[in-house]
Specification:
Largest sheet: 6 strands, parallel
CATH class of the largest domain: Alpha Beta
Number of strands: 6
Shape: globular
Mean pLDDT: 85
Low-confidence stretches: 138-143
Helix content: 40-55%
Radius of gyration: 17 Å
Order of helices and strands: EHEHEHEHEHEHHHHHH
CATH architecture of the largest domain: 3-Layer(aba) Sandwich
Strand order of the largest sheet: 2-1-3-4-5-6
Length: 215
């Protein structure tokens, strides 16, 4: 089994070391390094293989938002999982817009962070339930989502799948919930990406937040 190569990025040494010690205890995690800011993380990734970056959102020099942007511009396949606090709604939205794979509260249990890393590594969106509602309420909804659905020609099934992606479900979980095959879900997601002219599942989730499709 290939281990998930994880890079921890936080300006506080105690947090870096705590995460390093805990995550190193999981057999399928390879903690490849720690950095103090987003720019330092970019330099590290240029020289080392990294699957998932676990990054604090508030840091001097280069915070998690800018860090996400510069890393994703150069390394599209690297997944970035943001560690945040309950009051960082605007920062979280910006990080997601730049391609972050999701967010978790900094006081999350280590098991929850571990599960989040695994979900992000698989390409799914990680949404902390305590923060999701506040993120959605902070996003502008200038247009009624029904107008958006009509504008893009989305079917009822596609709208439902968009909602479930925004709720953090994987293709397999969506298939089970909607009584569809996983292949059908994948095909629908491809169609959704094409209709909305988006790149990936994270952008689909952002679209759902923006127009008010997510609950």
């Amino acid at each position: 089994m290939d281990k998930i190569k994880v890079l921890v990025v936080d300006d506080e040494k105690l947090i870096r070391e705590g995460l390093r010690i805990i995550l190193s205890s999981y057999e399928d995690i390879d903690l490849v390094g720690t950095c103090e800011n987003g720019r330092e993380a970019l330099e590290f990734i240029r020289k080392n293989d990294v699957d998932v970056v676990l990054m604090d959102i508030r840091m001097p020099v280069c915070d998690g938002v800018l860090g996400t942007r510069i890393i994703k511009e150069e390394f599209e396949d690297v997944k970035i999982l943001i560690l945040t606090t309950f009051d960082d709604r605007e920062y979280i939205y910006e990080a997601l817009k730049y391609g972050a794979s999701g967010y978790l509260l900094k006081d999350s249990s280590y098991d929850l962070i571990y599960e989040g890393i695994k979900v992000a590594a698989k390409g799914s969106l990680v949404v902390h339930p305590k923060v999701a509602g506040t993120i959605i309420s902070s996003v502008s909804r200038d247009e009624d989502y029904l107008e958006e659905i009509e504008k893009y020609g989305l079917t009822d099934r596609e709208v439902t799948i968009i909602k479930e992606i925004a709720n953090g479900l994987s293709n397999k979980e969506i298939a089970k919930k909607l009584y569809l095959s996983e292949g059908t879900v994948k095909n629908n997601i491809s169609t959704i990406l094409s209709k909305l002219d988006l790149r990936d599942r994270t952008q689909i989730a952002i679209f759902a937040f923006k127009v008010g499709l997510s609950k």
